[in-house]
Amino acid sequence: MKPVKLSELSRCVRRQVGRAAPPATGSQLPEALRQKSREIFDYETPIVLTALDTALAGADWVALEARAHCFKNSAHALGEPELAALCETLCVAARAPTAFFAATQLAMFRVRLRALNIAR
After folding, report:
1. C-alpha distances in angstroms, 93 versus 57, 64, 97?
2. Which has the closest alpha carbon to 119: 27, 26, 4, 41?
3. How do the domains of the chain map onto residue ranges?
4. Which of 9, 30, 50, 107 is deepest in the core (most CB within 10 A)?
5. Mean pLDDT, 10 residues at a time, over the chain (120 residues)?
6. pTM for this structure?
7. CA nearest 78: which of 44, 38, 109, 19?
8. What span, in angstroms and rounded, lies between the C-alpha atoms of 59 and 37?
9. How far apart are CA 26 and CA 118, in angstroms?
10. Could you give the residue ranges of the DSSP H alpha helices within 30-98?
């Protein structure tokens, strides 16, 4: 899923409506859009986890950071700040690569996904 910056979406909406609107967060999105976004997020989570595992196993820190960053944006858009924070920590682990630190962060990420009942 290509994340959409909510500030850009808000600007587009303001332009179309012709008045200022506050930036939207995950909890402020229309329910149908939020539900569809969540379905896509849930569907793509196993794909992202596989990509993260592959990047970690191959010490491909650029790919690890890119996937974690993309997932972080999606988590923010869905109003999941704790998951987004874990993704950011995973990005940091990829920029200062030590396999143990990155593996630990990925494990924490997986625990949070299970708590959200996203990854089984």
Report:
1. 14, 9, 6
2. 41
3. 29-115
4. 9
5. 62 61 58 87 90 89 92 89 89 79 81 75
6. 0.61
7. 38
8. 30
9. 17
10. 31-57, 61-77, 81-95
